[in-house]
Structures
1.
Amino acid sequence: MIPAQTLTITYAPTFIRMYKRLDSSLKEEVRDKIVLFRDPSNHQKLKVHKLTGSLRHCFSFSINYKVRVVFKYDEMDKCVTNLLYVGSHDEVYIIRDETSASRKKTGQIA
């Protein structure tokens, strides 16, 4: 039997900072979902989906009804993912999108 391919996970500094602010029970839930995420056959169950707007190069999966993880696939190796953000819908989508939009208006690179 051929073993299923698993993803290699890397963690962005922003993800680590956001993760450290979570309460301990939510941290445990995040760890459990990341274990599931490593196996691509679980992606449908985790509701992995491509994002739009300023996060159009990213994807997301659900931890629970309120909490999401935003990630990017490595450009050279699709078996490597970089977890970027973890938090509520507003924390990972709206705030990130607004920050990116304001940088574009002021001429800063996103």
2.
Amino acid sequence: MLAALIWLGTAAGWPSSVLSLGVVASAMVILEAVSLAMVPRINAARDAGETGQAAFSRLHRISVLLTLAILVLGIGVLGFIAALAAQGV
């Protein structure tokens, strides 16, 4: 998906800044989809009580790290957009 976005953007003559934003935004969407897809497994592990505690801890940790990555990427995108605006691009 990301490779297709880069290929299409390059073929269309998009500036590299637009391509960069598109790639990061796509990565954010993918990470969010993976994080949301994990919710039923996390809930099932939590509902399993003591037997699911290890699975719950692992899945919850992964989910939190994915959410953190999404937030960091989002802050980076906002900073990049602000830098472009400051340059008048």
3.
Amino acid sequence: MAKAGRGDYDFVKDDENIEQKTQYLIKSAITPLLKDFKITFSGKAYPTLPKADKLGFVKKNERFELLIFLDKAFVDGASSEEVKIEYYDSFANQKYSVNV
């Protein structure tokens, strides 16, 4: 179940100290995360993979990739699109918005 929800899990052998593994799992459970991603363009909509609203959450120090499929006009600079990236930071308990 932890794997399906992108959580952490661990096994404790008979000769291992359960306290260390429990501390690790508790820290992991309260780790800050980013969620509620939204990417908007001032003009046309560009598809992303995965869809930004389906990304879920990103844990602290976790790498993630988001592909944005742009057209030639955007890449060549012929388009004057503004890109806005929004997300929620659970550590700061605040929503952020960045214009690119």
